Every structure is written in C-alpha cells, then in structure tokens.
Amino acid sequence: MTTRTPVAESPLLSGPHRLKLATFGFNAQGGTTITSAEGPPDTDWDQQVRIAQLSEAAGIEAVLPGARWLGYGGRTNFQGRSYDTFAWAAAIAAVTTRCQVFATFHLPTAHPVRVAKTIATIDHVSGGRFGLNIVAGWNVDELSMFGLTQRDHDERYDFGDDYLAVLNQLLDHDGFFDHTGPYFELKRGYSEPKPLQSPRPVYMAAGLSPRGRRFAAQHADISFMAVQDVSKIAPAIAQTKQEARDFGRDLMVFVQTPIVCADTEKEAQELLGHYVDEMGDFEAARNMVSSLFGNTLDTTGAQRDVPVEEGVRAFLRLAVAGHGAAPLIGTPEQIVDALLVRAEAGIDGVTLSWLNYEEGLVQFQEKILPLLVQAGLRVDEDLPASSPEPVR
C-alpha cells in the first residue's frame, strides 16, 4: 500500500516563504509576450528543460503551463504551438526534483475518469509534486474543435462543481462508488492507484468573475488572478479569502507578474518599448482579448475619462506586454519594492514570466532573489549557485 501525504505538505503550499513563486506560461510559443522580438520561448524541448531547471535552481516553488489548442493569428500566431500540459507535466516532473509541477486543464475536454488516472500517474512520476490548474472553459473556437458548445458563463462553473464532485471521489474513494449529478452519472466509479497527495493534488483556479471567485473559494487551494492595478486588488483578495473561509477552507491568492528588469529604469522601459511598441503583435493581442470578452473590446479596454481608442490601446498594450497583466518594470530594487506592495495587499504568490525566460531566471536568482530575502519575502535556503546540467 502506497503511503499518501497530505496535500498541505506539497512543495507550493508548505514552503516557508512569505511570497510564493511560480514560473508561468513557457510551454507555449511566445510565453506571455505577444511580440516578434527575439527572446520568447518556443516548443523546443531542451529549452523547456532548461527553464524548468533554472526555476528550480532559483528556489521557485512551481512551474505552471498554460493550455492552448489554437493560436491567436496576427503575424506571430501567438501560442499557436504549445505542449499538452499533462504530458508536459509528466516529462518536466522527471527532470526536476523539488518544484510543484502543474498541468492546466479545460474541464469540458476530457471525462473525469480519464483525468483521474492521468493525475495519479503524474503524481507518482513526480513523487507527489503534481498540481492541477482548473479552467472552466472559455474559448469558443477551441471548444468547437472538440465538438462542444459553450455553456453560459455561470453554468460553466455549475458543470465544474459536478465535475470535481466526481473527480475528487475518483482520487480519494477506496473501492467503487456511484454518482448522480446534473452533468455526470457514474455506476461503479473506480480509479487506482490514488495520487500520492491526499485527498488530491494541489488545485489552482482562476477567479476573475464573482462566480469564478466562488468556484475557486469552494474547490481550489490557490486562486489565480491577473492584475492591472495592484492598488485596487486588496478588497477582491479579502473577499475571495472570506468566501473560502465561508466554505471552511483556506485559500492562497496568486497574481500573474511579468517582469522587465534592467540595471536602470530607463533601460527597462526601453526594453519594454522595443518588444511591445516596436515589435508587438497588436492584431494577435486584439484577437486574444476579443476571444475573452467577445465583441465588447471598446468598453472593456476603455478607462474612465480616457478616450475609447486610447483606452483600448492601453489595454492591448498590457496584453502584448504580459498576457493582460501589468508588468513590473525597473531595477532589481524597484521590482522587489513592487513585489512587497503585492504581498502587503494580501497576495500570497506570483506567477513570473519574462520576454526571455532563461536570461530572466538567471537575473532573478543573481540580482532579485537576495533582495527578496532582505525584504523578508523569501527565506534564504542556501540555494545552489547555478542550475544543474539538463537531464535527458
């Protein structure tokens, strides 16, 4: 009989650091920057291994992929190539030893019986380090490839409630069980082996809408948000954590955090201007935003008291610069100050990305991480000075 470990003891949830870290989005072509500038990752496996191992060498607790089935057109067809996140997670788990390795999964695209077996397999491969980033499913064009019709917004989460009711039993119930719900009916449901984590691996879910936040509060260990204005996020964080407490649960909140760092703020701003304003693929960015918000881009992108087109341009610029999240820009000291503001707003962790992940991770370990320790956001764990040779 395999000994199972409480999920609370997983690398991401149990670490000693005030601000948790995850490297985000490098499994897809372009990463999180919609640009034709040089630097973003592509579907090169040796590069994937290097990025994962550099992340682990820097003490980053998790690696988190994004799930994509179609690109966004434009001259770059941003994220038009990407690795399947379950297979990716199993392979990355085999070449790392400490970090939490996530897969991102759109619930409508596979039955929970299939997914339970996959989850348990990867959790065994990783030695109990697997995590699942749960997505209700939002991209109409992608879902249509599966022959699926998009549900109304809130119903997607109703479906998710029933999905997880089945999945969680498959991952933790000994023997057979029956389930009758609004979307799933199982007779003699069964799955073995169980994952090493008990009662299930770490769950993450994006919580942007009120219904999405409630779903994350009810089911997830981590709620994942994109932030455009950190000064306004504290109430949303407090509300999400209170909703989790109402369900008798604790919840961490992570935010997406692209980084643009240089020796001077001027150099960082010039780098951002190069890959966003000079080389940014604004057509692909518009396609991505439209797929998220339908045909409401003018009102979504506009800011109060700002002309619509100017507001749209600013919104699209965020999409190009960091997948919709405002990047942190400046010197290492300025980056740490900005991360401290996020922690003081109630944020428990950040998902990091860069134009060039390999260069960014080396810079992060050498110049930013020591300052994070000084600021009390990270604990000095006597990390290795450099990443190991890639394992193949």
Automatic annotation (TrEMBL):
It comes from the Bacteria. It comes from Lentzea pudingi. Signal peptide: none annotated. This is Luciferase. InterPro entries: Luciferase-like_dom (IPR011251), Luciferase-like_sf (IPR036661), SsuD_RutA_monooxygenase (IPR050172). Keywords: Flavoprotein, FMN, Monooxygenase, Oxidoreductase. Residues 32-348 form the Luciferase-like domain.
